[in-house]
Amino acid sequence: MRRRPGGPSHRSSAGARRASFRGWRRGNYGPDGRRRPWYHFNAIAPGYFETELTRQFLASDAGEKPRRRIPTRRVGRLQGLDGLLLLLASDLANVRTGAVIPVDGGHLLASL
Fold this sequence. Notes:
This protein has 112 residues and is α/β, with parallel strands linked by helices. It contains five helices and four strands.
């Protein structure tokens, strides 16, 4: 059975994201509605990465299926996130906020 957008699990996770964002917004905006300048809200959207938990799955025949959907035909290594994490944590990203940066080997674009 395929999951479709708008199904029960999608609606519950979407509601949780909205509630989480509202709570974050309440804590990071002042009473006048202006954003507190010392917070930056950025996110990394990782694709398939090899970790201790995923290593066995990705090495199996079942793990080959998601690998074939990635244009680069390979999964990421956690060390590949180091540079992006350092950028977002540094003063070089002081004006970058609200960015969601995909690190997925082109998987997101392959579905377009």
